[in-house]
Amino acid sequence: MPNRWMKSIKLLLIPAVLLLLLAGCGSPGIGESYPLESVSTKDKGQTSRIYRAENKTVPEVAQELADQKQPDEISKEDDQHMFLVYPDELYHVQQDQAKPSDTLIEVDTKEYVRENYDSSFLQGYILASVLDDLFDGHKKSYKGSYRGYSSKEIYKPSGSYHVPSEAEKKVAPPITKEGTGSIFKRSDSKKKSDSSVGQDGNLFKKQDSSSSGSKGKITRSSDGSSVSSKSSSIFSKPKSKSPPRTKAGSSGRITKRR
């Protein structure tokens, strides 16, 4: 009786586990994403993208971004502004002045920083050596007054921001913070070798028929009938459809041709 109960429980658990695994694969809801909210694009590679992190502080978001993508430099912890410096971009993590419970993530190209930002404002957050590299050692020649998207109405950039189009969203997808799971993209052209059930412990792989067992060989005998080889073939020996023959010299017993 206990064995029957165990078998019943296993039969109920297997479908539940499969459903959980399928729900976790390819689901865009796994992980937490910061949607693209606004874009400013000018010539000479000047691009700025704005993302929103709802109900999160500046230090929290800055740490999440640093954990996801290690920066070359990160500014000290601050409730209003934090900066993450990458080889080709500057992340300006800032409190939204219009909605203080939210944090804005501004991703600027170096060209945008050089042409728009107030270098004296950045000096309060970024090391002088990093700032010199960011401005190519010519901070004085750049006379921007910009201090970030949250104060763009006061310290205006040279260009204007707009709601991103579908094409711009494709070019710059949402920043995704990896949570307890990961986002997987299904491949359009899976190799057959990756599709075997149970192979390498993968539950979702189907076995490739070309790799299962040895291939049999079909030969034709002298009387014209097809005969399979004795090796482990996927084909069975064909049955003859010709009428039975009577064994000569016997008592009329009918035997079937083998």
TrEMBL record:
Region (Disordered): 154-258
Coiled coil regions, renumbered to chain: none
Basic and acidic residues composition bias: residue spans: 185-194
Stretch forming the signal peptide: none
Pfam families, A to Z: DUF4247
Compositional bias annotation for Polar residues: 248-258
Ranges annotated as biased composition (Low complexity): 209-237
InterPro entries attached to this UniProt entry: DUF4247
Name of the protein in question: DUF4247 domain-containing protein
Biological classification of the source: Bacteria, Bacillati, Bacillota, Bacilli, Bacillales
